[in-house]
Amino acid sequence: MAQRKDFHVAVCGGGIGGLCLAIGLLRQNIPCKLYEAASAFAEVGAGVSFGPNTIRAMELIDPQIAKGFENCATTNGWPEKKDTWFDFRTGQEKGTRGGALAAANTHVANVNTRGVGEVGQNSTHRAHFLNELVKLVPDEVPEFGKRLKNISERGDKMVLTFEDGTNAEADAVIGCDGIKSRTREILLGQDHEAAHAVFSGKYAYRGLIPMDVAVDALGDELAKNSQMYMGQHGHVLTFPIEKGKTMNVVAFRTKLDGKWKEEKWVLPSKKEDMLKDFAGWGDKVTSIISVSWIPILTKK
User: Cα angle at 257 between 256 and 261, to 5 degrees?
Assistant: First the structure.
């Protein structure tokens, strides 16, 4: 067994990134603590896809991470689509204002991953993968309810101060605390242009559809294999998760004024809002929206 390292690392953030980092540190016998603001491990959202490079990275960090992903990963449902990343299709009706894309053939393009591991489309439910990662972290590593407030130096140590008034010491601090990262603010400075995330002009509706409902609405091929429907100021992607039991939906739209007026970044939404945003799109996109459930609007 490799000798235990004589320095300690603090990892801020207990999402997929923070857990993978902690697992990798422990595999290298580097002592670490993981500080999570929430009261328990939890992931926001539903489906997430990983490319060949990410899966190779999992194996390099710790083969057990890749094994955990394999336990909950879902590939395209048709064997002949196993190495396909997405089928790109026209999302809008012919004649819809938007130019050549809207008037193109229904099947626009196919992207595969031959030559890069032949893993094709690999997707999972975020929460399910998180649960697999949690199994690989000893109980004494994570601490919950630890929202980072500040980091200061004390001699050759870094001192972390949390919102609950407690402190912790480490030789190094690594931030995995997401898009609203407090670690990034401290590292770059509160006024640095890269310290705060800004609205990209895109927002997305997220939803889940039971696979039998999706097949009834779209047919077997479109429901069970990853699809990308392209259109003017938006696109809709779908792919299977939960070992093919569910179809994940993410419908992106451009906010033409480029402004996000809501205080929250994730909002509950209504099917009527989605139908209005995708009015004039083709029957497949309309069908997807019509049968979607658990719609959530997310700022991007």
Answer: 120
Q: Return the pLDDT at 269.
A: 84
pLDDT band at 164 (very low <50, low <70, confident <90, very high): very high
Q: What string of H, E and C letters represents the secondary structure of the chain?
A: CCCCCCCCEEEECCCHHHHHHHHHHHHCCCCEEEEECCCCCCCCCCEEEECHHHHHHHHHHCHHHHHHHHHHCECCCCHHHCCEEEEEEECECCCCCCCHHHHCCCEEEEEECCCCCCCCCEEEEHHHHHHHHHCCCCCCCEEECCCEEEEEEECCEEEEEECCCCEEEECEEEECCCCCCHHHHHHHCCCCCCCCCCCCCEEEEEEEEEHHHHHHHHCHHHHHCCEEEEECCEEEEEEEEHHHCEEEEEEEEECCCCCCCCCCCEEECCHHHHHHHCCCECHHHHHHHHHCEEEEEEEC
> What count of other Cβ atoms lies within 10 Å of the Cβ of residue 12?
27
Instruction: List residues with catalytic annotation.
Output: 206
> What is the C-alpha to C-alpha distance for residues 177 and 218, in angstroms, rounded to an integer?
38
269, 151 in Cβ contact below 8 A?
no
Output the pLDDT for position 114.
39
CA distance 144 to 130: 15
Mean pLDDT, residues 212-233:
95
Tens digits of residue pLDDT in 239-278: 999 999 999 999 999 998 989 888 888 888 888 888 899 9
Taking alpha carbons only, the member of 293, 4, 19 closest to residue 177 is: 19
The predicted model scores a pTM of 0.84
User: Is the Cβ–Cβ distance between 89 and 228 less than 8 Å?
Assistant: yes
* 116, pLDDT greater than 90: no
Cα(211)–Cα(222) distance, rounded to whole angstroms?
A: 11
Two tokens, residue 185? 């603010």
